[in-house]
Amino acid sequence: MSDEIHTGSCLCGGIKMKISGQLRPVVACHCTQCRKQSGHYYAATNAPDEAIEIEGAEKLKWYMSSDDAKRGFCSECGSALFWKHDKDDFTSILAGCLDMPTGLKLEKHIFVADKGDYYDLTDGLPQT
Asked: What is the rounded CA–CA span in Å between residue 125 and residue 86?
């Protein structure tokens, strides 16, 4: 495991996180659920569950957005923070809540068939 440390928080600072180790490159998800929750699209990295420490967990609320996945957000300010599939041992972390510099790069776009009609994807990254 890398000795990298990443930190982040929600908008109000009520939830703070510390992530130990290397993060996955950022994936942009354009599915309808991500667009409706965030107002645009999700841009998320991920980390193993055991690498994530959360301060202010009492303010972290989870919404079951499907039968097998949930979305974590701050109950105070509403910041979208996490996406978690029930069967995975890792959690997706929204890249925008991480403190800079992150050192992360956008890797690809997913669910582009559901993307909003008000923007184009012109960065040349893979699209599925």
From this structure: 28
Distance CA 29, CA 26 (A): 10
| Gap between the Cα atoms of 75 and 37, Å rounded | 14
Tokens of 45: 């990295």
Instruction: List, in order, residues 6 or more apart from 120 with CB less than 8 Å away.
Output: none
3-state secondary structure of 113: helix
- d(CA 105, CA 95) in angstroms, rounded, equals 10
- Rg (C-alpha) for the chain, rounded Å, is 14
**45, amino acid identity:** T
Against a cut of 0.85, is the pTM above it? yes
Contact 18/99 with Cβ under 8 angstroms? no
Q: Tell me if 47 sits within 8 A of 93, measured CB to CB.
A: yes
What distance lies between CA 53 and its chain's CA centroid?
15
Q: What is the DSSP letter of 64?
A: E
* Residue type, position 91, single letter: T
For residue range 31-87, what is the model confidence (pLDDT) as tens digits?
A: 999 999 999 999 999 999 999 999 999 999 999 999 999 999 999 999 999 999 999
